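Before relying on records like the one below, remember that each one covers exactly one chain. Contacts with other chains, cofactors or solvent are not represented anywhere in the record.
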Amino acid sequence: MAGRPRVRLTAKEMGLIALFQAATGASVEDCIVDDKNNRIIFVVKKGDVGLAVGRGGHKIKLLEKVMRRRLEVVEYRDDLREFLIGALRPVKVHGIRLTERPDGRKIVVINVDPRDKARAIGKNGRNAEKLRLLAKRYFDVDNVIIV
């Protein structure tokens, strides 16, 4: 696909992707091992989230037991806004604004429903951190702010 950044995977990440694909049947685009939050984030091909998660989340729950980590699944999108909205689901997003500072740094401000703000940020900021990791990795964004 045009514009998609080249992501380098470690042998560990490639092994996790192989296991995840074999267990779910979903096509995995990327895998991020987030040791700080004891989780693995799988980025799957557009349309494969349901396949990856399984009915009632049974595939994810089973894999979490096998991998002994929390697993999160995000659908890949070429568009920054669509990608971040999907990564925040089911949080209601009112708007996303990308600004470029004079020093060249790119900042994304995500406006969410006030009732969903705590969920958007996540416990100890883990959801906000996930958004920052993904936005940096795929779109070269320096920071993500949730308001």
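The domain at 80-146 is CATH 3.30.300.20 (GMP Synthetase; Chain A, domain 3).
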